[in-house]
Amino acid sequence: MSCRTCSGTLKRVMSLLAASCLVGCKPTSSPAKHTSLPAVQVLKVQEASPEKVVFVGHYGTGRTIPLAPTQAGRLTTLSVVSGQYVHQGDVLAIFEDRLLLEVAAQAQGEVDAARAELNQAAATYKRSRGLDAIGGVSSGTVEERASSWRLAQGKYKSAQAALTQAQIQVAETRIRAPEDGRIISVTGVPGSLVGAGSEIVRMSAGLPEVRFKVPSSSFWTVGDAAEVSVPVGQKSQSVHAVIKEIGAVDDASQTQDVKLILDQPLPVAVSSLVTVSLVPHDVSHVVRVPLTALVSDDQTHGHLWGVTEGQEPHLVLRRVQVAGVRGADALVEGLTAGERIVTNGDASLHQDQAVQCISQVSER
Questions:
Q1: Domain co-membership, 101 together with 168
Q2: Is there a domain that residue 117 lies in?
Q3: Which site among 155, 196, 266, 332 is 20 to 30 Å from 138 CA-CA?
Q4: What is the pTM of this model?
Q5: Mean pLDDT in each 10-residue stretch from start to end of the chain (364 residues)?
Q6: Domain edge (last residue) among 278, 295, 316
Q7: Is there a single domain that holds both residue 248 and residue 314?
Q8: Does 294 share its domain with 256?
Q9: Are 333 and 321 in contact (CB under 8 A)?
Q10: Rounded CA separation 191/202 (Å)
């Protein structure tokens, strides 16, 4: 082989070796591009399922009524105990009435005497009328008999008033329930002297109600339904109720006072603890999202980051309305079930930013 031929062959071999080295050293662009994207954790949201929310409240009634005697006396009988349900007109306590009964009997006798005197004066005056015209009696006598009749009328009315007053005092020795209700407390002691106006029994009356507190972020309104329950023996008794009032937000505790009106009373004492189950609203079109994903704009509005589908996901700003809170999640409106969202907001994220979805947590 000539030297010229060997030289040409060597040049071709060197060219191939150089080309193969360049090809082997060429970097792949896709991994470098992939690792430069911010990594985010995503989840698919689902519609919120209905769920009753339970609170503890205090049972009560619309008002309390203290009962006391209008006159001083000795308490002889107490016929009620704390917690007892009473009806309007029931006798709750009795005071000694012997002297008052004697006064009433005397007043009745005076009424009877005054009535007899009145009837006699009326008959005498009736017989005298017209006799003065024929000279049977003088005009002065007729006028005198007329005055006696009018005086007898006054005495009779006065005796009737005294009898009525005596009868009222006798009736006041019986303390009666002014309306249907439940006895809250009994402070009177049989046999003791009680001053006028001194309370011996206190009762509750009016519509049964329950008061409790809810977080300020709650979404219940006046008229919403609820169930109030108490344990009765081995079972639980429930009564339907509705929200009657919702108070203002307390700045310190961030809670609101809620008042329920019950359909019927519960068989428990006033101030007893009861369980309140609030019936959920229609939660269609409301989804659950982690509180960590939500950035609040105000008390009822916020935003979070949605993630597009496909091989190159991008961020989409989604604005939502906050309907409530359930545990570590927020209930929001403005998202569609099945959408993917970023579970942790980051100040560095922005609209249309390409991201790498590193994982997908369990659906909400």
A1: yes
A2: yes
A3: 155
A4: 0.54
A5: 46 46 43 67 81 86 93 96 92 96 96 96 85 71 90 96 96 95 93 96 93 85 92 79 93 92 87 86 74 87 91 92 82 88 85 85 58
A6: 278
A7: no
A8: no
A9: yes
A10: 19
